[in-house]
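If your schedule permits, I should be very grateful for your opinion on a structural question. I have a record of one protein: its chain in single-letter code and its fold written as discrete structure tokens. Kindly check, if you would, that the fold set down in the tokens agrees with what the sequence suggests. I remain grateful for any guidance, and I place the record below:

***
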Amino acid sequence: MEEKYFDKDIVACYRTDLHNRLRPEAFLDLAQQLAVKGAQRLPFNDTALMKHDCVWVLARMKAVFEREVKFDSELGLSTWHKGPDGLYFLRDYQLWDDKGIAVNSTSSWIVMNATTRRISRDEKVMELLDIPAQCSEHAIEQPCPKIVFPKNAEAELLGVHKVRYSDIDKNGHTNNVKYTVWALDNLPQDLVLNHRLKELSINFNKEALPGEEVALYHAEIDGAHIVEGRSQDHQVFIEKLIFE
């Protein structure tokens, strides 16, 4: 079943940074919409899962920004289901302009029961998910890695974010893209404003709900910046960012 979902878009002004280039979180927004649209054509789309009180939840994401994409560029986008990997279901993405591929990305998803907020093991849901990969290609061959906060690194408190209206999505928790926004907003501004992000990897480990406070900790090791979000002694997310 060699089939991808394709779409087109544009680098609108509200998606750019002060250097007139596509912001990293803007790509994550595009990827999120691609995942929804791509799944709509498959047996495990949102409508089918909701009949079983289940929803898709992003567990891990990795994006490699091969080069910058400028304001008003016309974009081509693609995504495809890559099948199961243990507890996860894999989906890849690519973004390109007239110069070629600009972003390669991969993601790992789980199916969550909307009532229990736990991974679903429902047999009928598993039947919906039992389809082969749509395409044998890889945007990124290896699945998203597990990220661990360096044991010997000194954790610096960047700030505390209270989850508010603009953070919440239709599942009633913080939208996955917002964690990267929090990280970029709280890292040293000279770093994020004047250095292009080359790569990000993020693990989503616990829901952040309206009104909850998430403390953001930072460590730099081997040229990478690790940002961890904690709430009530639980790790909400952890992200690894590599800049030029």
In short: The mean pLDDT is 95. Residues 24-40 form the longest helix (17 residues).
